[in-house]
Amino acid sequence: MSDRKTVMSVNGTEMFSPPSNILIPTRDEGKKPVLDVRGLGIDFGGLRAVDEFTITVSPTEISGLIGPNGAGKTTVFNLLTNVYKPTRGAILLDGHPTAGKSVAQVNRMGIARTFQNIRLFDQMTVLDNVRVGMSNNTRCNFAESFLRLPGYFKAEKRSRERALELLSIFNMESEAYTLAGNLPYGAQRRLEIIRALATEPKVLLLDEPAAGMNPSETHALMESIRQIRDQFGIAIVLIEHDMNLVMGVCEGIAVLNFGKVIAKGTPDQIKNNEAVIEAYLGRQEKKEA
């Protein structure tokens, strides 16, 4: 990692100018990072679960966060969304610190996520699941809702139309009135992503989106991730164990092991990195001649 110079302080935490070796997609050159995370860490009692986690994500970058089970990847996502409050470090979202914000406030600022275990409202329709995600942007006040004034019905109409539009992008409009719990597994995964997109995020965090998918579904997911980046113009950070997906779709990858980043680089750099190979496969002793 190259030297950095301190340029600002956020809540007492020093922030730095970006390292010169940060990978920036050509389309994002000259643009400031949408997500700038520096020195992030959290302790649980005497356990240092995440330490000195630093990443910079450009506005339309697809980034991967990989590592062995228990490396701290989901803990990082919980820190980025303020489910956990960092012990140290700072997070800037589009230049604004997220410190002291609630989970809902961080979501309104522009970070949305999915989960390892699908968290849909099983007894609600697909359409209503998407509309739940749109609650941040529903322009209807309490009085209009309570009294069922014209503003309420206009907001409901806009909400329904936008939800159907999002579903149609992913060819799920025909399932709009199906109960979410009755969808096939792969469709439930897509619905959770659509619901996250309904919040209009700047950064979408996907936690093991390909978990439980067959190769055909995983390939379709890869295409969907690219489509989301291109159509919505947002950054995507994904945790994933399927290396074909990671290497096929990510532009930059960070590798986490025991709560620390041990490598960063392009897919080609990562798959040939000795520290990464050792973290996944264990140290192999050299044979004596």
Quick take:
The chain is of the alpha/beta class and 289 residues long.
Could you describe the 3D structure shown?
- The chain is of the alpha/beta class.
- It folds into 2 domains: 1-110 and 238-282, P-loop containing nucleotide triphosphate hydrolases (Rossmann fold, 3-Layer(aba) Sandwich), CATH 3.40.50; 112-200, Rossmann fold, CATH 3.40.50.300.
- It is built from 10 helices and 12 strands.
- The chain has helices spanning 73-80, 103-109, 126-133, 142-146, 150-169, 185-197, 215-232, 243-249, 267-271, 274-281, and strands spanning 6-10, 13-16, 35-44, 47-57, 62-66, 88-93, 96-97, 111-113, 203-207, 235-239, 252-257, 260-265.
- α7 (215-232) links the parallel β9 (203-207) and β10.
- α3 (126-133) packs across α5.
- It is globular, with a radius of gyration of 20 Å.
- It starts with 5 loop residues before the first strand and ends in an 8-residue tail after the last helix.
